[in-house]
Amino acid sequence: MVLAELGGSISRALQQMSNATIIDEKVLNDCLNEITRALLQSDVQFKLVRDMQTNIKKIVNLDDLAAGHNKRKIIQQAIFNELCKMLDPGKPSFTPKKAKPSVVMFVGLQGSGKTTTCTKYAYYHQKKGWKPALVCADTFRAGAFDQLKQNATKAKIPFYGSYMESDPVKIAVEGVERFKKESCDLIIVDTSGRHKQEVALFEEMRQVSEATNPDLVIFVMDSSIGQAAFDQAQAFKQSVAVGAVIVTKMDGHAKGGGALSAVAATKSPVIFIGTGEHMDEFEVFDVKPFVSRLLGMGDLSGFMDK
Amino acid sequence: MFQSIAGKANLEKADLEPALKALKDRLMTKNVAEEIAEKLCESVAVSLEGKKLGSFTRISSTAAMEEALVRILTPRRSIDILRDVHVAKEQHKPYVVVFVGVNGVGKSTNLAKVAYWLQQHDINVMMAACDTFRSGAVEQLHPAIVAKEAIQEAARNGSDVVLVDTAGRMQDNEPLMRALSKLIYVNSPDLVLFVGEALVGNDAVDQLSKFNQKLADLSPSASPRLIDGILLTKFDTIDDKVGAALSMVYISGSPVMFVGCGQSYTDLKKLNVKSIVKTLLK
Ligand SMILES: Nc1nc2c(ncn2[C@@H]2O[C@H](COP(=O)(O)OP(=O)(O)OP(=O)(O)O)[C@@H](O)[C@H]2O)c(=O)[nH]1
Ligand SMILES: Nc1nc2c(ncn2[C@@H]2O[C@H](COP(=O)(O)OP(=O)(O)OP(=O)(O)O)[C@@H](O)[C@H]2O)c(=O)[nH]1
Ligand SMILES: [Mg+2]
Ligand SMILES: [Mg+2]
Fold first, then answer.
1. What single DSSP character describes residue A45?
2. Residues of chain B contacting A111 with CB distance shorter than 8 Å
């Protein structure tokens, strides 16, 4: 299971605390240190982890807890809530509706998996009876259009792109217009990989977004990304209205903690995860059952802050 | 960083702990993998424990750490590609480099950069595309055979170097790792170059150790070839979070031979160990 190792470490830390006869400062600290370590090993941003630790300590405040209170339960709940807060920005992302045309734009760092994920996203919806279409607004990378074309052809999804035109804005606009006319209800725009240090690349992304006015911008990130995740995700959010995150390559060994950083940085939920190179290796992601499974506590929905 | 312990005669482990924890935290914020940061701090502790404060104050804390980091980042075995290419040339065989790594890290792009760099040194380069998955590639062909034929062709037409591209693969993907071991076994390249991105976090450790482990375990050969060097990509995307370089070199003992720092064919540099160490300790 995804993020399973992180979940295992956290459950173990909680279990150890449960085994202690008396819960004092030391027991709590040991537990929090274990969890902190697990989060850092999973690539969650350092500052987020620190903040989480401080928050939990504030909430739990052992001195204030009268005797007789179930400390374990209070601590468990605090940890659960903090993890949920990290993974769940509180509001759901825009969800496209069948038969009502939506434009979805994919953005992200170089090689994160945008083009592959565009096809997966289209294919997933096509199987559910949508009419998706793919637009290749990546005029930067050699072979980008061929790659999208090949993917789209395999999935029998209409596509638009150009070998000659070098302006991604122009292609994006033309593609979106064409597919709106053809009454496609899910128009997906693939863009070039970029990073915050290249201002011109970010400006180009902003222009594509402005010209196509997407209903949803999806930030695609590689699950193996380390401490740079937060800064990059935040920069994307500052340039375009990122509304959701997809984490790719979860079939690898990475524990995917960068996803937590990206959620925090973009205030957007993870909606899907990629679990392989092939079209159908794609799963819906739902945070709450996930976190409770993660903690090995079964379904804790009734347990949460509303 | 070590100010709090001034005034003690002998350093004990407990005295060092807060300072070491601060050091570990700092390394992790710079994207050094947790496991590596921990190990580094342990070895610093060992080297400082029991030292008389006199000698300790002389080697200022950062100097000791700087030294340790430079040592790690400076390869035990150094590889001089240009020299080795010329040696191969004298023996009338093409020098073969295989680029390996996980998906999307920049193998194909940086292979082109290396080709350009070699051409700048008047070396004839041939490229073999054995990445049979992404973008327009032919899926049916067997990568090991494609590489073999490319090398034979290079020998015929007098190319000095063959750069072999391979498809990205996850280090846990047994069939794909087996195929890679086979490609390397069949072609016995002069250099196995691991391509890893500077963006990668804790997975850096797993990627390198598993690539080496799988190349060893899954190879038909009794003395299998492992990773010789590292090409670190996307160095332009990480600001001061340069820790992946340290994680990769520490875990594999292989040197960073090139650094990719952009998407154009001229964006290839040598690793600047001093500046990495400075950045890590800043
Ligand atoms: N194993 C695995 N590989 C993936 C997954 N998603 C994408 N990939 C691979 O990652 C590599 C890069 O994927 P692309 O979709 O081309 O990435 P991109 O973001 O479009 O890249 P640029 O356009 O160059 O920025 C390819 O080898 C894909 O097959 C995944 O979920 N699992
Ligand atoms: N910013 C930056 N981008 C890079 C660098 N090297 C490669 N890239 C980009 O990373 C993306 C992936 O590069 P590829 O060369 O296709 O990666 P790959 O490892 O061959 O990918 P697969 O064959 O699919 O596994 C492309 O968009 C490249 O332009 C670099 O040093 N800096
Ligand atoms: Mg792409
Ligand atoms: Mg490639």
1. -
2. 103-106, 197, 234
Between β-strands A282-284 and B95-100, what pairing exists: parallel, antiparallel or unpaired? Answer: unpaired
Residue B19 has what pLDDT? 81
The residue ranking higher by pLDDT, B53 or B164, is B164
Q: What is the phi/psi pair of residue A268, to 5°?
A: -130, 145
Q: Give the DSSP H/E element, type plus range, for residue A132.
A: strand A132-137
Tokens 């750069």 appear where? B163
Name which of B25, B34, B135, B246 to mutate to probe chain A: the one with the most chain A Cβ atoms within 10 A of its Cβ.
Answer: B135
- Cα(A81)–Cα(A90) distance, rounded to whole angstroms? 12
Query: ipTM value of the model?
Result: 0.94
Query: What's the pLDDT tens digit per position in A25-78?
Result: 888 899 999 999 989 999 999 999 999 999 998 888 777 666 666 777 888 888
Would the pTM count as exceeding 0.90? Answer: yes
Determine what percent of chain A is predicted with pLDDT higher than 70. Answer: 91
pLDDT tens for residues B196-229? 999 999 999 999 999 999 999 999 888 999 999 9
Of the candidates B104, B229, B163, B74, the one whose C-alpha atom is nearest the C-alpha of residue A111 is: B104
Alpha-carbon gap, residue A70 to A68, rounded angstroms: 6
A150 lines ligand 1 (CB under 6 A): no
Q: Which residues of B touch A (CB under 8 A)?
A: 25, 28-31, 33-35, 102-106, 133-136, 170-173, 197, 199-204, 206-207, 210, 234, 236-239, 241, 243-244, 263
**CA Rg, chain B, in Å?**
21
**pLDDT surpassing 90 at residue A253:** no
A166 contact partners, CB below 8 Å, separation of at least 6: A139
Say which DSSP state B131 is in: -
Upper half-sphere CA count for residue A102 (Cβ side, 13 Å): 17
Dist CA A256 CA A272 (whole Å) = 13
